[in-house]
Amino acid sequence: MSQGKIVLMACGSFSPPTYMHLRMFEIARDYMQSLGMGTVVGGIVSPVHDAYGKKDLVASHHRISMLKLALRSSGWIKISEWETQQSGWTRTKLSLQYHQDTINCHMSPLNINTESPSWLPDDVLNVNSIDEQNNLNEKLNGNVGEGVTVKLLCGADLLESFAKPGLWSDEDLETIVGRHGLVVVTRAGSDPGRFIYESDMLYKYRKNVTLVTNYIANEVSSTVIRRLLQRGESAKYLTDDAVLAYIRQNRLYGSVPCVTEYNLLNDILANYEKSPQDVIMTSPEETSFKNILISIRDKPSIVDETITVKRAKKSNFLMPNHTDTISPTLDPKPKMAYIDKVPSTYVPGKAVKIVSDVKQHAIKDEKGGGCAL
Ligand SMILES: Nc1ncnc2c1ncn2[C@@H]1O[C@H](COP(=O)(O)OP(=O)(O)OP(=O)(O)O)[C@@H](O)[C@H]1O
Ligand SMILES: NC(=O)c1ccc[n+]([C@@H]2O[C@H](COP(=O)(O)O)[C@@H](O)[C@H]2O)c1
C-alpha cells in the first residue's frame, strides 16, 4: 500500500560522512518506489548538535562543510543545519516533527510566496506534478492524506540503540514509529527483523517499519575512516575525495597532510565550490603576471593535468590570479596550483613537473634539470 509522499530524513553525527551514509538514501528510495510504497519526494541529512558530545564529533561547521562536499552531486538530498543551530541537542522526535511541519506549511497554497528553507527538497514543491498512480488511487480511497510524511532513515544499529536503557523515551519512540515511520537499512551483525519481533512497541507498529536489505553490503563507517586517518593510512574510496581533502586541510581526526602532488592539488580544489570565473585569488603580486603552463604529473611519463597559472614578472613567486586562464577550458573543475618559487631560468609556456612535500615545493623543467627549492 502506498504511504503517500515521503521525505527520508537521516539523523546522526556524520563525523565524517561516508559513502554508505549517502547510499542509504539511494537504496531506501529505490526499494520504496519499486514496491509502490510511496513517492519519495526528497531526502534530508540532519547532523546532530555539537552538544551531543559523542567521541570524535568535530564541530558542526566542519561536518556541514564535509556533507556539502559529499552531496554536491545529489539532486534530491539536502542538508538541514536546523539541529546544529538550536541552543543544545534536540531529540529526534522533535527534529522529525519540526521538519515535517515546516514542509507541510510550505506546501500550503497560503505560503506559496514565503521563502523556503535551504534544506527543503526541490520536489516537495512540485509534489502534485509528480504524484504517482499509486498515490492517486490511495488518495481516492481515502488511505493517504495530502501532506508529506517525514520518515526516519537509519541503519540497523540505530534501530537497535532503541533498546539501550535511558537513551530514548518510550513516548518519543512511539511517536517516531507510530506517526512518522522508520526505514531501516540492514547492517552486518544486526538482525533488525528479530529486533522488531522482540519489541512489543515495534511489533505493534510494524506496518510503519520498512526493512531494506542492503544486498551491496558496505561496512564503511565514520569510525573506520577516522581510524585510518589517525594511523596515516589511506581512506580513499570510502568517502568522497573532496571530503578527504577537507579533512587533511583542516587536520581533522588527527590526520596529517599527505605528500603527493595530487593531494596538494586536491586540497586546493576542495576550497573552490564556485565556478572558476567567480574565484579571485588573493595574492601579494596581483599586477604584471605572465602566463606559464604547468603540467601536473602523477608519474614522470604521464601528464595527467595541464593547468595555467600566472607568474609575477618582478619576483620569483608563482600565483594563480584569475582562474579564467584555466586550460583545458571544457573541464568544469577549477584547476590551479600554488608554487612558492620558480627557478629564474624558467621559460613561460614550458611544461613543468611539480614535486611537493609538506615543507617545500620544487619545480623541474621537462628535461628534469630544474632546481629544487
Ligand atoms: N555501513 C552502514 N550501513 C547501514 N547504515 C549505516 C552505515 N553506516 C552508517 N549508517 C547509518 O547512518 C546513520 C548515521 O550514522 P552515524 O553518523 O552514527 O554513522 P556511523 O558511520 O555509524 O558513525 P560512527 O562510526 O562514528 O559511530 C545511522 O542511522 C547509521 O545507522
Ligand atoms: N532520544 C533521542 O531522540 C535520541 C537518543 C539517542 C540518539 N538520538 C539521535 O540518533 C543519532 C545517533 O547518531 P550516532 O549514531 O552518531 O550516535 C543522533 O542524531 C542523535 O540525536 C536520538
Walk me through the topology.
Blueprint: E1 5-12, H1 19-34, E2 39-47, H2 60-70, E3 77-79, H3 82-85, H4 92-107, H5 122-125, H6 133-140, E4 148-155, H7 156-160, H8 170-180, E5 182-185, H9 192-198, H10 200-204, E6 209-212, H11 222-230, H12 241-249, H13 261-270, E7 289-297, E8 303-312, E9 318-319, E10 352-356, E11 361-365
Parallel strand pairs: 1-2, 1-4, 2-3, 4-5, 5-6
Antiparallel strand pairs: 7-8, 8-9, 10-11
This protein binds adenosine-5'-triphosphate and beta-nicotinamide ribose monophosphate (NMN).
Pathway: Cofactor biosynthesis; NAD(+) biosynthesis; NAD(+) from nicotinamide D-ribonucleotide: step 1/1; Cofactor biosynthesis; NAD(+) biosynthesis; deamido-NAD(+) from nicotinate D-ribonucleotide: step 1/1
Catalytic activity: nicotinate beta-D-ribonucleotide + ATP + H(+) = deamido-NAD(+) + diphosphate; beta-nicotinamide D-ribonucleotide + ATP + H(+) = diphosphate + NAD(+)
Keywords: ATP-binding, NAD, Nucleotide-binding, Nucleotidyltransferase, Pyridine nucleotide biosynthesis, Transferase
Name its key features.
373 residues; alpha/beta; six-stranded parallel sheet; three-stranded antiparallel sheet; 13 helices; 11 strands; disordered C terminus; binds adenosine-5'-triphosphate; binds beta-nicotinamide ribose monophosphate; Euk_NMN_adenylyltrnsfrase; nucleotidyltransferase
